[in-house]
Design goal:
6 helices, eight-stranded antiparallel beta sheet, about 325 residues, alpha+beta
């Protein structure tokens, strides 16, 4: 895209902001593992529905023919068994980024040099010393305690929209740093969908996806942290999923329709332990010991929805 230095219009406002990184010590400990149900921990299943508030596009990596004169080609949405889905890996990554931002967790993925990061928050290196996000979602050599299914679209309806061309973020740019240190964790804001000339296949606003999350041996506070990241807390968070985030694609709302936990009274007496309904609010209350209130407030402001903000349709 043409910038001001080449005679073009000035860049538009940035469509993102930063959640500050905690400067305190990041607690690390041995993860609970997966071998047995621990009596003082919680295992079970979350069932939920994701509703698209703006069009959702998760690229399959394929360019497909549309069978139309305009546009003849389109960036396709990912499918599993001919059903459009949000891959579990995409959903897990989005939720993990929220957990990392609102808890005392390490900076797992960054291109910043070590001296540009808070020394207390550098990435976990030892499997017996993992931060809360790495224990929950995994680290190199460790599977983690939380597993996401693919979120499968109800029905099979997609449509084609046109978004602005988007490019790889310039992660070494000065705007990501302040005083020689990274500003924080980057999140894209919500707003009005931008128009462009790049055709993409999307699941339109109003689409619903069914998904589930299995969790093993979480503390009550960790389960509450997961539920907050899924948008169930008092500060209701609306994650962004998939591609086209700067153009305001991917805004979703998540509803937890069922929370079931293992009945520990049967966990050791039966091959298949019984499951029982659980109260979400019990775990939201427990999460207070892990949630960083300042960072949660910053993130809630960044992910505020609805928003009348205009998303950039050219260079920003």
């Amino acid at each position: 895209m043409v910038g001001r230095e080449y005679g073009g219009p000035p860049p538009q406002p940035k469509p993102y902001g930063f959640v500050s990184v905690t400067r305190g010590k990041v607690p690390r400990q041995r993860p609970a593992g997966h071998d047995d149900f621990e009596a003082d921990l919680v295992s079970g299943t979350i069932t939920g529905v994701i509703t698209a508030l703006t069009p959702v596009h998760v690229a399959s990596g394929q360019i497909e023919l549309t069978g139309k004169r305009e546009p003849p080609l389109v960036k396709a949405h990912v499918r599993v068994g001919d059903r459009p889905v949000i891959p579990g890996s995409s959903l897990k990554g989005s939720i993990r980024s929220i957990v990392e931002a609102i808890s005392a967790s390490c900076i797992r993925i960054t291109r910043a040099r070590r001296d540009q990061q808070p020394k207390e928050a550098v990435a976990c290196q030892k499997l017996d010393q993992l931060c809360v996000a790495c224990r929950m979602f995994g680290a190199l050599g460790y599977q983690g305690q939380v597993r996401f299914s693919d979120a499968v679209l109800r029905g099979n309806r997609t449509e084609i929209i046109q978004v602005p061309p988007l490019y790889t973020p310039r992660l070494q740019a000065r705007l990501y740093y302040e005083g020689g240190q990274i500003k924080g964790r980057k999140f894209y804001r919500h707003g009005k969908l931008a128009q462009g000339n790049v055709p993409v296949e999307v699941c339109p606003a109003g689409s619903c996806f069914d998904f589930s999350v299995q969790f093993d041996n979480l503390t009550p506070a960790e389960l509450g942290l997961l539920l907050i990241a899924l948008g169930q807390g008092e500060s209701r968070l609306h994650p962004k999923l998939g591609g086209g985030k700067p153009a305001c694609c991917g805004t979703v709302e998540i509803a937890v329709t069922e929370l079931k936990v293992v009945d520990m009274a049967t966990a050791y007496s039966q091959y298949d332990a019984d499951m029982k309904d659980a109260d979400v609010n019990t775990y939201l209350e427990a999460a207070k010991e892990l949630v960083l209130s300042d960072q949660l407030r910053e993130l809630a402001e960044l992910l505020r929805y609805p928003s009348e903000r205009e998303c950039p349709n050219r260079n920003y």
